[in-house]
């Protein structure tokens, strides 16, 4: 879309030259042809370092927009970002894309549905009632069990196993809320990428990114009934046990273990080789590697065990 058209939709003026905006992106990752936004003054430093061609800002942050970047000044940038995100959402299905490409030796159930533009590698097994969306890529030797849904533009590597009824690339839980308590959907225009040698249990959901990619790295093992939010990164060979939930934009380092029913808040970073015992609640980033934690509020596992012992003695 032309920047001028975007300004008309947002009912705002803009400074700078008109140009074709190719997509929306974060301040950190945006390029000269992309649109970004600032919803909080704490990101002023990111504004000054951004390469975005245009940024949606409010009156408090407009003066920090760098020279050569167009400022779209609105009253509520987060709400307006949500409103304009709809215009950059690709079609759910696209009949103009080429027929799917199926690799040698791959077996696909006649009850499965493969959308246009999809590419499936060699020696895969795609079972009944699987749906693989437009422009999705599946690597070699991957097994996808019945009822799995993989939304458009996602990537699944080679030697993967995805068990029944799991969903890859569904929309993350993103919306803006105005003063009246009304909600506006933020269209999730990124994707989800599953690297090689990943196993995903049944009825697990991995959300696509708002912008960019939700990334599950090589060798990860995910149990049944796990929720991974948008823009998360799960480090190599991590293990996530049943009924765990990871909120959006949290990064797990290599070989992190989350015990059953564990959960993390969003926008956290968990150091490599960290272990969370069952039902751990993680609300802050963990910077030191190799530790084991438990409980809520979270504490080191050995301290949690001592605390439970003292509580048990108190009630005798």
Automatic annotation (TrEMBL):
Residues 18-86 form the UDP-3-O-[3-hydroxymyristoyl] glucosamine N-acyltransferase non-repeat region domain. Keywords: Acyltransferase, Lipid A biosynthesis, Lipid biosynthesis, Lipid metabolism, Repeat, Transferase. GO terms for biological process: lipid A biosynthetic process. Pfam families: Hexapep, LpxD. Its EC number is 2.3.1.191. It catalyses: a UDP-3-O-[(3R)-3-hydroxyacyl]-alpha-D-glucosamine + a (3R)-hydroxyacyl-[ACP] = a UDP-2-N,3-O-bis[(3R)-3-hydroxyacyl]-alpha-D-glucosamine + holo-[ACP] + H(+). Catalyzes the N-acylation of UDP-3-O-acylglucosamine using 3-hydroxyacyl-ACP as the acyl donor. Is involved in the biosynthesis of lipid A, a phosphorylated glycolipid that anchors the lipopolysaccharide to the outer membrane of the cell. NCBIfam families: lipid_A_lpxD, PRK00892.1. Homotrimer. This is UDP-3-O-acylglucosamine N-acyltransferase. It comes from Sulfurimonas crateris.
């Amino acid at each position: 879309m032309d920047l001028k058209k975007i300004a008309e939709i947002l009912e705002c003026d803009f400074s700078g030259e008109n140009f074709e905006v190719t997509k929306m992106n974060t301040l950190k990752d945006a390029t000269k042809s992309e649109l970004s936004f600032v919803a909080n003054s704490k990101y002023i430093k990111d504004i000054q370092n951004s390469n975005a061609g245009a940024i949606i800002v409010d009156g408090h942050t407009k003066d920090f927009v760098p020279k050569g970047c167009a400022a779209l000044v609105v009253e509520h940038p987060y709400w307006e970002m949500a409103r304009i995100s709809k215009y950059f959402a690709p079609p759910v299905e696209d009949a103009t894309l080429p027929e799917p490409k199926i690799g040698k030796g791959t077996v696909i159930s006649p009850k499965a549905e493969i959308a246009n533009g999809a590419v499936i590698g060699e020696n895969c097994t795609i079972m009944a009632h699987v749906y693989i969306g437009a422009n999705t890529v599946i690597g070699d030797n991957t097994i996808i069990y019945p009822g799995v849904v993989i939304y458009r533009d996602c990537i699944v590597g080679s030697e993967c196993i995805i068990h029944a009824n799991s969903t890859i690339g569904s929309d993350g839980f993103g919306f803006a809320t105005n003063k009246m308590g009304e909600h506006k959907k933020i269209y999730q225009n990124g994707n989800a990428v599953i690297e090689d040698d990943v196993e995903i249990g049944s009825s697990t959901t991995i959300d696509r990114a708002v912008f960019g990619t939700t990334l599950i790295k090589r060798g990860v093992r995910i149990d049944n009934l796990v929720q991974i939010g948008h823009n998360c990164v799960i480090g190599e060979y991590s293990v996530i046990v049943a009924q765990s939930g990871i909120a959006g934009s949290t990064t797990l380092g290599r070989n992190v273990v989350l015990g059953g029913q564990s959960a993390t808040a969003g926008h956290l970073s968990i150091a490599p080789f960290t272990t969370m015992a069952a039902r751990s609640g993680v609300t802050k980033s963990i910077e030191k590697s190799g530790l084991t934690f438990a409980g809520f509020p979270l504490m080191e596992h050995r301290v949690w065990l001592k605390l439970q012992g003292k509580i048990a003695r108190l009630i005798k």
